[in-house]
């Protein structure tokens, strides 16, 4: 059988596919309950061969923190490792028939407009799937009847303390957007069979590429 999900039709009911994905994620390394971090936790665990001799916070913004750890190497030498700690986030892969839902927004940090998967911060007490369902509704105006966990990653580990979960949404119904006051984004959609090509057209962002690849690996796109 081909690894390409488009080569053969999938007659498996949505409910059965969702149950299969739930079993796969809960029995594996990923949990739907994130190790909550609001960007101000500062107590990430370490390893005994790399003891932290000093940890310094240099600034806080309310949703992220930055500073450095003075770390002792196995040979006894020490070095400052600078880090930025960000709140835990969720990225949403949402399929409506043969189209993938996305959002377009200007990113002031990189000074360009990005075509992205819906995403946002996980609130205290939320699971990844709960946060993904909420973010999808707020940003695109669609409610999902089925949400499942695709995976969890630590991002840009040479600099960031940031964990990101990915969820897949289907069974979508329009309910209307509910954007925050400081959100300026436009819902978009692209054909599923063109999604990977579209998101690789510059400017490309990591969360969108990761989400699409995870969903394709599961045979969902």
TrEMBL record:
EC number per UniProt: 3.6.-.-
Q: Which organism is it from?
A: Halobaculum marinum
Nudix hydrolase domain location is 83-214
Database matches in SUPFAM superfamilies: Nudix (SSF55811)
List the molecular function annotations (GO) for this entry. Answer: hydrolase activity
Tell me the InterPro entries matching this sequence: NUDIX_hydrolase-like_dom_sf, NUDIX_hydrolase_dom
Q: What is the name attached to this protein's record?
A: NUDIX hydrolase
Q: What is the lineage of its organism?
A: Archaea, Methanobacteriati, Methanobacteriota, Stenosarchaea group, Halobacteria
* Keyword terms of this UniProt record: Hydrolase
For the region Disordered, give the residue spans: 1-50
Cofactor(s) annotated in UniProt: Mg(2+)
| One Pfam family matching this protein | NUDIX
Composition bias, kind Basic and acidic residues: at what positions? 1-24, 37-50
Domain of life, per the record?
Archaea
What PANTHER family does UniProt report for this protein, alphabetically?
Answer: NUDIX HYDROLASE DOMAIN-CONTAINING PROTEIN, UDP/ADP-SUGAR PYROPHOSPHATASE
């Amino acid at each position: 059988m081909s690894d390409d999900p488009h080569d053969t039709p999938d007659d498996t009911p949505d409910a059965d596919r969702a149950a299969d994905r739930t079993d796969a994620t809960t029995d594996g390394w990923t949990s739907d309950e994130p190790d909550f971090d609001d960007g101000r936790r500062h107590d990430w665990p370490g390893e005994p061969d790399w003891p932290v001799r000093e940890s310094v916070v240099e600034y806080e913004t309310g949703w992220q923190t930055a500073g450095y750890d003075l770390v002792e190497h196995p040979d006894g030498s020490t070095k400052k490792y600078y880090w930025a700690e960000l709140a835990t986030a969720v990225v949403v892969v949402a399929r409506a028939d043969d189209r993938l839902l996305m959002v377009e927004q200007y990113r002031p940090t990189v000074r360009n407009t990005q075509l992205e998967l819906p995403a946002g911060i996980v609130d205290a007490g939320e699971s990844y799937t709960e946060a993904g369902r909420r973010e999808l509704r707020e940003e695109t105006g669609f409610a999902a009847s089925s949400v499942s966990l695709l995976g969890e990653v630590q991002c840009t580990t040479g600099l960031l303390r940031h964990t990101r979960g990915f969820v897949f949404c289907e069974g979508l119904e329009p309910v209307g957007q509910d954007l925050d006051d400081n959100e300026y984004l436009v819902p978009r959609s692209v054909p599923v069979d063109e999604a990977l090509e579209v998101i690789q057209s510059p400017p490309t962002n990591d969360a969108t590429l990761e989400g699409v690849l995870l969903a394709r690996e599961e045979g969902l796109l």
